Amino acid sequence: MQKSRFLNRIHTVTLQTKLIFSFIATTIIILIVNLFMYQNINQLVNQLDAIYLSNVQLNELGEALNDVQDSMTLYLNTKTSDAMESYYRAEQDYSMLIQNLNEKVTDDNLQMMERMIRNMSDNYLEITNQTVEAKRGRNIEKYKTRYEKATELYEYIGTYVYSLNNEQFRENSSSYKMLSLSLQYLEFISIFILVSVAACNIVLITILTKSITNPLSILSKAANQVASGNLEAELVEVYSMDEIGIVSSAFNKMLVSIREYIERIKESMEKERTMKERELMMGTHLKDAQLKYLQAQINPHFLFNTLNAGAQLAMMEGADRTYEYVQNVAQFFRYNVKKNNETVSLRDEIELVDNYIYILNVRFSGDIHFEKHIDESLTNIQVPSMLLQPIVENSINYGIRDIEWQGLIQLSVYEQEETVCISIKDNGIGMTQNKIDKVMSSELRESDVSAESNGVGLSNVISRLRLFFDSKDVFDIISEGENKGTEVIIYLPNTAMGRKYEDV
Amino acid sequence: MSEHQTKEWKKNKFVLISIGAMLVMILITMGGLIFFKIKIQNSMKEDMHISKESYDKYYVMITPDSDSSFWQSVFEGAKEEAKKNHAYVEILGDNLSVSYSEAEQLRIAIDAKVDGIIVEANESAQMLELINEAVQEGIPVVTALGDNTASVRQSYVGISSYNLGREYGKQVNTLADAYFKGDTADMADKKNEPLQVLVLINANADDSSQNILFSAIQETVESKSDHAGQINLEARAIDTEGAFTAEESIRNIFMTEEDLPDIILCLDELNTTCVYQEIVDYNKVGQITIVGYYDSETILKAIEHNVIYSTISVDTKQMGEYCAEALNEYLQTGYVSEYYAVDTNVITAGNVRNYLGGDADAEK
Fold it and tell me: What is the number of domains present in chain B?
């Protein structure tokens, strides 16, 4: 647990810290090795110096001893004050030098030799002083014997100094060997350490670089995938919480939120679509309901039977016009009920219009003039039922009902550039362009018109036509202005021949 | 490895390897540095003298023959004993570039104001003068092996010449018995001739000890032997003063004398070794019997191989111990006994194994 917590801590270390730390650490290690090396080399060189220092000191000692002996001899020979002065100087120098020598008894041969030199030198200086004193006191015999004694001691001391020098040199030679061996060791170890540290450093730097570039290349790959449109690209795995880790997890978050966003848009689009569908359905249902209501108002069979009975009665009584009228009414309603939802031939539709006009002319005592200009070859074309009658009804109700002059309805069927045109033209009050636009864009509400109609409005016809032929330009209203009449033209593509209404 | 572990490993791979590399670096550095320190310290230790001990007193030992194993052994004994009184013993002039005479060495010791002198003395006047001067200067002097009886030296540590002579005499008697009984095959044909015994005496020893020694041998042979009349004792002086003279003198005996002695008695280590070598060179093994002196490795080997019949060894270690003890005692109390007698042992083929390859002490 401790370990994993530690590792987690490391994962949160920033890239900067990692880089700085590793560089500093390796630099420090190399620095330490170098410092250690230099310190040791320094130490060894100092020891090397010290080795020969002892020899140098002994040589100085020997020279000082010579000076004492020489100056004493000179003084004994010449008795000049110069010689005496130089003797005392030499004597002082020498006694200073021998103060440095070892005086303790140890089991080291060299130190014991030093002690011997020191003790003998003390003795020697005493004797030389006595000699000089004796010379000054002109005690010839005394100074001569003293001189001999001093010379004897001088030789012994000289031998000792020389031998000690030799011994020390021998000892120093072995020290020197040891030191040069140490230097070799130092060189070898330093090279070894530097090489291994360098190797580790290379490994460390490689790893560090990899740990930086690997996640980056993974990230860039993922980003490329996303850029090329693959939003389903896998999320980048985040191993550390350094800068790259932060970028990676930000990228992941972005990817996730893009996906969520797209999902949301999809959802709302779906919702909108279903809502529209429902709205449409509701409209249809309403229509159905209205139709059902209308149909339910009259029991068609009862109506037909009643009308048929009326027709028979009229025939028996010899009232031919009544018979014809009732017959027409019966036909009109039967069609209305039977073929409300089916595709019918244009001929049937025209027949219905005939029936309708006949009925109206009976009602309004022949006020409406009806002209047909039919190209019989086009009457087999299939159209939605209840197509023409509402238009004609419209023309009568709004066009010619309240006019002063003779009303005229013209129905023409003709072919024009592969298109079958059905034109219903009246000479009534006409329409303003504003009203035409409103009718064309189905803005007139059902309630505005349905009061007097038989239930199927113009807008219904228009939208059914558009749905049936899957085109907007199937219907046109043309009016040249007030009292100039209105023409409604239906353009049916010739391909509509034989097409079934149910297919829509 | 479970999937979780794999993932963990993947996650921590870089970190672990980095930490590993760091650790390896640090370990290598520390290890290298420590290794170097240890190496250096080891070679330093080899080089440096093992802890220098301090002492209160400084004794010197002066002998003209300091390199011989005899005196080395004496020196070892003295050194050990002196240590008990915090004194350090050195053989004077051991590492000097000039080899000084005994007298010069004594002078150096006096001038260097040492705390005690152990000297192999002789009866010369110069020695007497120097010993007396040393004692006047307050330096106690102990004579070892050789004495200067006239001097005011504090003590003498040595072998009683008389006792030593008796030991030699006993050896001669033993050999004579065997000779006349005809135990030794080689000697059988000489049965009727008198037994020739040659005693090699140091020509330079002007003291009386040699005389006492020779007299003691003579006395022992004459009084204790059954064949006293048939044994001819002859003394021959061997010059040992000059370099290599001893070997030359002994070679002369073998080259010039037609009638070689049956037994040769050697009174010091050098003579014994030389005689032994001549006998081997002249192919006289078995014809001449050697009674030697001291128990050096060479002599003990010769006894083992039956070239030397027996040797009389002085307990050199004891001698050294007595020397140091005498000096210690004098410096502590101001009094010391005048004479210390050192033990002697006879080594023959029968007990040579006790001495070979081991310390003489081990046998005792």
Answer: 2
